[in-house]
Design brief:
Layout (H helix, E strand, L loop, with lengths): L19 E11 L2 E10 L8 E12 L3 E12 L5 E12 L3 E11 L12 E10 L3 E10 L15 E10 L10 E4 L2 E9 L4 E15 L4 E13 L3 E4 L4 E3 L2 E13 L6 E12 L2 E15 L2 E14 L2 E17 L2 E10 L4 E13 L2 E12 L5 E10 L6
Antiparallel strand pairs: 1-2, 2-3, 3-4, 4-5, 5-6, 6-7, 7-8, 8-9, 9-11, 10-12, 11-12, 12-13, 13-16, 14-15, 16-17, 17-18, 18-19, 19-20, 20-21, 21-22, 22-23, 23-24
Length: 392
């Protein structure tokens, strides 16, 4: 759960871009407090009314290396119903290796904004330990059925979520000529419905990564999953492929290889295979990056999913190209181009960034989506943004 997620601003529930009228952001320190404040006015578009978004964060350092804080978010659509959230957190760090944190939040909005019953509270507690050899952490959080944070990211409601992670780093001296580190680790995450509703999903991973002295990275592992599905859902609406209700247990086995990313040419490869709901999935990624010099690099990749389910099968490719041009340390261009063979859509994003003074930027962004079959334009946007750091 993310209490404040900035991508909720300027996008409709369907993911369409909504223009912004104006906005401001202030960060800094006053006395012993760190302050962050944001206010943005979103324009009206289609069924989305003109909406004001506000976020306020206060944080204060305590003890030797700990902090406490509070946060408030407010979404206020014109002629509509408000949505607000209030939260507090505390983070403690002890003896350099130990950490502990606790947070709590509450949402407030009219009852008809979210159907069903239950509470509108969220809570989380966690603890961790990390040394040169061992890394361990645990977490437990609860999300009420009516916790409605529309300026945040809440993937599930009405669940109790627990997580455990344990790993150990080894750097054997006898192998230090070619082996830098190996880090076997396990992770367990469980979601259960609140008030004794039973298991909803469970995820585990058993991974063994190895980093070589030339920076080549290799990882093998297996990912067992359990999913309990109450209602049929579509996994590919265009092809009418769906998953029926039921309890599914499946696992993926994979291998991942990334060669030295600082070399003039590097590659990233991944292959995974295993059961997938009531069928099977094979997925592959192949990509390469070429660095001409410190001013230009380009990377290309193809992500392939070959899925077979009881309701149908399909193969899709996600082709991605990234281009980076650095004219100087203060001006550069980043470009991303993608093509999805399943939806037959091209999408592109080009961003020019000019650092006109330290920690202050001018951005010019161009976004476009097109249908490959017809060539028709689906969406296009040109966005300009300027930041200016005032020190006082």
């Amino acid at each position: 759960m993310i209490f404040f997620f900035s991508r909720q601003i300027g996008l409709s529930p369907a993911g369409d871009t909504i223009p912004l009228l104006a906005g401001s952001r202030i960060t800094g320190r006053v006395g012993g407090w760190t302050i962050g404040a944001l206010n943005i006015q979103q324009r009206e578009k289609g069924a989305s009314p003109s909406t004001n978004f506000t976020a306020l964060r206060l944080r204060r350092n305590i003890l030797a290396n700990s902090d406490i804080g509070v946060m408030m978010v407010n979404k206020d659509p014109k002629g509509g119903d408000y949505n607000r959230g209030f939260g507090a957190d505390a983070n403690f760090r002890f003896l350099r290796d130990l950490t502990a944190s606790v947070s709590v939040a509450k949402s407030a909005s009219p009852k008809h904004r979210l159907a069903g019953s239950g509470d509108d509270w969220y809570s989380k507690s966690s603890a961790g330990y990390r040394s040169n050899r061992w890394e361990a952490r645990g977490m437990y959080q609860t999300i009420g059925s009516r916790f409605n944070d529309e300026m945040g990211f809440v993937p599930r409601r009405g669940v109790d979520n627990s997580e455990f992670y344990l790993g150990a780093r080894f750097r054997p001296r006898r192998m230090q000529r070619w082996l830098r580190e190996t880090f076997p680790h396990i992770q367990f995450e469980n979601f259960s419905r609140r008030n004794g509703g039973g298991l909803e999903s469970r995820y585990m991973d058993w991974h063994w990564p190895v980093t070589f002295q030339n920076s080549t990275f290799v990882e093998i592992g297996t990912n067992p999953n359990i999913e309990v599905i109450d209602e049929r859902f579509s996994i590919n609406s265009r092809r009418r492929i769906f998953v029926n209700p039921g309890r599914y247990e499946f696992k993926e086995h994979f291998i991942l290889v990334n060669t030295n990313s600082s070399a003039p040419f590097s590659m990233n490869l991944r292959a995974g295979t295993g059961e997938f709901y009531d069928g099977y999935r094979r997925n592959y990624t192949i990509g390469g990056t070429f660095r001409l010099n410190q001013h230009f690099n380009v990377s290309l990749s193809d992500q392939i999913n070959d899925i077979e389910l009881g309701s149908g099968s399909y193969v899709t490719h996600l082709l991605t190209g990234r281009f980076n041009v650095y004219f100087s340390t203060r001006m550069f261009v980043n470009a991303l181009v993608q093509y999805n063979t399943d939806t037959h859509q091209w999408s592109s994003n080009v961003r020019l960034d000019i650092i006109h003074r330290p920690l202050s930027d001018i951005y010019l962004v161009y976004n476009e989506r097109r249908d490959y079959r017809s060539g028709d334009l689906i969406a296009r946007a040109i966005i300009a943004k300027m930041t200016y750091l005032f020190a006082f």
